[in-house]
Amino acid sequence: MDIIPQIIVSGLAAGGVYGLIALGFVLIYKATSILNLATGEFMTLGAFVCLTAMTQLAAPFYIAFLVTLAFAALLGIVIERIILRPLIGEPIISVIMVTIGLGSILKGLTHMIWSPDYRSFPKIFPPQPLDLGFAIVPSGLLWGFVSAVVCTALFTVIFRFTRTGLAMRATASNQQAALSMGISVKRVFALSWIFAAMAASIGGVIIGNISGISIHLGNIGLKVLSVIILGGLDSIIGAIIGGFIIGILENFAGVFLDAFFGGGVKEVVPFVVLVVILMIRPYGIFGKALIERV
After folding, report:
1. Measured between alpha carbons, how far is 31 from 88 in angstroms, rounded to an integer?
2. Which of 80, 116, 160, 239 is deepest in the core (most CB within 10 A)?
3. Are 150 and 238 in contact (CB under 8 A)?
4. Rounded Cα gap, residues 252 and 187, in angstroms
5. Is residue 294 part of a domain?
6. Where do the TM regions start and end (predicted)?
């Protein structure tokens, strides 16, 4: 079997999950112009809640998954209402710094409640890999990719074809104009945080099923930052395409460069891409260039 198709297929599968997590960044940024750097901790909390519901409460996966979504929605509401809403009108850098502090708090709470021990999810998906003839997709990546695609499609439909999505897009375009049309900007902000927390939690559950979880699972959020910078901070399709690109580049680096450099290149590649894209096209592939007239 040729190794190149295998690298690409595996990269696409991993990239689909990255794209779902990146969607959490994009949804908040489009509606509020805030870059939520606590997304990784949302992932971690969602994964631990789902695992706890399955192991401690003996709930079947679909019940645990619904509990996780409800928890994520509640988390999004509480954070937006208590922490972020009082910061409306404050400088963007101040709000971003608050999300960094929020991430540290959530990580500390996760450490206190669940300890730093590594945990594995019970087997949920069928173990058989998918044989495409030219490549084999492991079961975890296969079902993770399918789940990510379904969830991403659902969020995209909501954003593009519903009244809620229309309100979110109007708010993202011009908050003052949205207010003049009777749109509740505060409600849109709350919904953005709810959807973002849900997307991140789903990503955490998917990754947890593939490779297990620990309190350091949120570090993937920093990697996904390169995905949204590459695709464009305000572009849903950019989040997906960026995820695919980063997933494929990671796999190529892991196969061809790790052995040459003694390892570690796969983990560095997303951040190299982040630096390069900021130098060449800081608004990303599908992002909108902002032009200010003075």
Report:
1. 12
2. 239
3. no
4. 43
5. no
6. 6-27, 61-79, 91-114, 134-159, 188-207, 268-291
pLDDT tens for each residue of 129-160: 888 877 888 887 888 888 878 887 887 888 78
- Asked if residue 285 is part of any domain, the answer here is no
CB 274 within 8 A of CB 30: no
* For helices 163-173 and 139-161, angle between their N-to-C axes, nearest 10 degrees: 80
User: What are the φ/ψ torsions at residue 213 (nearest 5 degrees)?
Assistant: -135, 155
Question: Per DSSP, what are the bridge partners of residue 132?
Answer: none
Phi-psi region of 279 (alpha: psi -120 to 50; beta: other; left: phi over 0): alpha
φ/ψ of residue 2, rounded to 5: -65, 135
Domain encompassing residue 181: 3-280
* Residue 288 to residue 191: CA distance in whole angstroms: 23
Domain at 268, CATH number: 1.10.3470
215-225, pLDDT tens digit by residue?
Answer: 888 888 888 88
Structure tokens belonging to residue 37? 């750097």
Which is more confidently placed, 13 or 49?
49
Contact between 21 and 39 (Cβ < 8 Å): yes
* Predicted pLDDT of residue 63: 93
Q: 236-252 and 3-32 are packed helices; what angle lies between their axes, rounded to 10 degrees?
A: 150
Q: Give the other-Cβ count within 10 Å of 276's Cβ.
A: 13
Amino acid at residue number 247? G
Q: What are phi and psi of 130, to 5 degrees?
A: -100, 120
Selection from 232, 203, 211, 224 nearest residue 42 by Cα? 203
In a domain, 76, yes or no: yes
**262: helix, strand or coil:** coil
Q: For residue 57, is it within any domain?
A: yes
Closest to 219 measured CA to CA, from 44, 75, 100: 44
Confidence of residue 289 (pLDDT cuts 50, 70, 90): low
